[in-house]
Each structure stands twice: as structure tokens, then as C-alpha cells.
Design goal:
The chain contains two helices and 27 strands. The protein is mainly beta. It has a single domain, classed as Jelly Rolls. β14 and β15 form a beta hairpin. It is globular, with a radius of gyration of 19 Å. The relative contact order is 0.21.
Length: about 325
């Protein structure tokens, strides 16, 4: 998924010392995405930029799209991160400049590692399911991996842990011995938890991780208080377990990881370490658009010819142009304001 804001804010992030267990509700803001999708952006937000290496959290839907085009995000670039696509309802057609062409469905992991540079598009297929509901998340790559060769993984079978009234699907990382096949480059966890009516479950946690919970449906009780749908609750560090209860069917995403101590600059769809790197990535993308506009937008782009970002074969329509850079310098600063 892309950040398609015409004037994206500068996001500068850095890990901060462990604060111990807390319970902090983080506000969402509505952001239009493409032609007919509005997302709730929960990270980055005022005062908190990351949870472990998770640095971007969008929750969208449930949206009725039977008579709508659904998600329509044209080709756009990424650097220095991994995108994690997770669907609860509907489908998303992923294409990228590696030649990947995958239809991602509920319960399947779409994991794209941008590394030094990749381009991709995301669309609801035609025809598509009448409902669209999901989450799009980014993971910041550490210094040693942020220029790695880009890749795409599509995993249809993920480990599921079950106990009476509850099921936990491990998207990324490991929970209670169940490990996701998705490749990660920092210690982190991503889990989709489904709770039946009357469920009372306890999840084991890594004490040196920081964690947050995103409620996607229902109103589960997390750490002693209910969480409304579309809310993100930051739980801090130092927890060995997390109790979850539900008076009605509910679903949530547990995100966590070792606090990310590197400073990063996040602007538009790029993650880097300096403003100069962001400017260079933008210039690379704009140069590709200028040099090969027909190839960037053709429905049949012909043989794959990779460049700094590369062509996304099969997408009908123009790629996204990068917005203007802000007038203020792009600098890596602290993670919190």
C-alpha cells in the first residue's frame, strides 16, 4: 500500500528507552487512498512513531465495494522497508517490478521487501468480493539490511494456535513455538487473534518487546479495558503475558518487537537515514517516470527490464508521481516529539 498524500508530512523516528508496561490509546486520522478507499492511519501518530520495527499501520474497512472499484493504488516506489498486506475480507491484486503477480486473500500473507528499491501496485480485482477490510503495515529495515535485494513473498499457509474460544494466526515472527514462514530482519511479532463470545485467553509475550493491539472488529477487553474497532492501544514493554476477553465476537492484531533504536527518516513511501537519501530516491523515481512514461503505464509492458525501481507489468494507467519535497530540511531526529 502507498502513502499517496499530495503533501506528505516528514516522519522522523528513533527508538526510545523501555518505559515498562503502559496502556496508551493512540488516535487515528482518516486518509483517502486511491479512488474509493479511506483508511484509518494509526502509525505514525503524534508522539509515537514506531512499535518495535513496525512504523506504519493503516486499517481500512469494512467497506461495501460491490458497486465501487475498491482499492486502486497505481505503481509507486518503496525503499528501506517491508510492506505487510493482511486481509480480513476481500482480495487485493499485487503486482511489482520483480514481475510478481499475486492475488492476496484473507488469511494469506503478502510480504514485500523493498530493500534498495522496488515499485508495486495494488488493486481490487474485477470482479471482486462485495466487502473490503484489512490492514497494511510497514516494517523498517535495519541498517545492515536496508539496501538488500528486493523480494516478494506470498504465504497461503500460516501457523495457527488454538485454545477454547480463541485462535491466533502468526503473520510474522514466532508465538509459543509457532513461527511464520515470512522472512524478517529484526526481532518482531505480528499475530491475528480471533475471539469468540465469552472468550478468556492469555497470550505469552516477550518481555523485552514493546507491543500494541489494533482492534479490527468487536470490542475486546485488552489489559482490563475495552478497545473500540479501529483503535490502537500501545502496551509498552516488560510484559510476559496479555489477557484478552470478549463479550461478543472480536478480532485484533497484536504487533510487537524489540524497540528500534536506529534513527530513520520516513517521507512519502521511502525510509532512509538522511534527507539526502530521501531526495536521491525521489529523484530516481521521477527520472524513471520521465524517461519511460509509456513503459511505466502500459498494460503490457513487455519483457521485464529492471531499473533502480523498475516497471510494474500489467497495470493499466499511469504510475504515481512523487509529491514535492517539503521546504524544511529532512533530518533524522528523535522518535517522539
Amino acid at each position: 500500500m502507498s502513502n499517496i498524500a499530495a503533501e506528505p508530512a516528514v516522519q522522523v523516528c528513533q527508538g526510545r528507552p523501555d518505559a515498562g508496561p503502559v496502556r496508551e490509546l493512540l488516535p487515528a486520522r482518516a486518509v483517502p487512498l486511491g479512488e474509493s478507499t479511506v483508511v484509518r492511519r494509526l502509525l505514525p501518530t503524534m508522539g509515537r512513531r514506531m512499535v518495535g520495527a513496525w512504523c506504519f499501520v493503516d486499517h481500512y474497512g469494512p467497506d461495501e465495494i460491490a458497486c465501487e472499484p475498491g482499492m486502486q493504488v497505481p505503481p509507486h516506489p518503496h525503499t528501506g522497508l517491508q510492506t505487510v498486506s493482511w486481509l480480513l475480507d476481500g482480495e487485493v491484486h499485487h503486482r511489482d517490478s520483480l514481475g510478481s503477480d499475486a492475488l492476496i486473500r484473507p488469511g494469506e500473507l503478502g510480504l514485500m521487501t523493498a530493500g534498495g528499491g522496488i515499485a508495486h501496485s495494488e488493486q481490487s480485482p474485477d470482479p471482486h468480493s462485495p466487502m473490503l477490510h484489512g490492514a497494511q503495515l510497514w516494517v523498517a529495515l535495519p541498517e545492515a539490511e536496508r539496501e538488500r535485494v528486493p523480494s516478494f513473498e506470498h504465504h497461503r499457509d500460516l501457523p495457527v494456535l488454538r485454545e477454547p474460544g480463541a485462535a491466533a494466526t502468526v503473520l510474522l515472527g514466532e508465538l509459543a513455538g509457532a513461527r511464520s514462514p515470512g522472512q524478517v530482519h529484526t526481532a518482531l511479532i505480528g499475530v491475528d487473534v480471533t475471539l469468540e463470545r465469552g472468550a478468556d485467553a492469555v497470550l505469552p509475550l516477550e518481555g523485552d518487546f514493546e507491543h500494541a493491539v489494533l482492534t479490527v472488529s468487536g470490542a475486546p477487553e485488552v489489559d482490563g479495558g475495552e478497545l473500540e474497532p479501529g483503535s490502537l492501544c500501545y502496551l509498552g514493554t516488560g510484559r510476559s503475558t496479555l489477557r484478552l476477553r470478549a463479550d461478543a465476537p472480536s478480532r485484533l492484531l497484536l504487533l510487537g518487537g524489540i524497540p528500534f533504536t536506529e534513527k530513520i527518516v520516513m517521507w512519502w513511501n521511502f525510509i532512509a537515514r538522511t534527507g539526502e537519501e530521501i531526495t536521491a530516491a525521489r529523484d530516481r523515481w521521477q527520472a524513471e517516470l520521465a524517461e519511460e512514461p509509456a513503459a511505466m503505464s502500459a498494460a503490457s509492458a513487455g519483457p521485464f527490464r529492471p531499473g533502480p525501481f523498475g516497471v510494474v507489468p500489467g497495470f493499466e494507467g499511469p504510475a504515481l508521481a512523487a509529491p514535492p519535497l517539503p521546504s524544511t530540511p529532512l533530518r533524522a531526529r528523535g522518535r517522539t516529539r
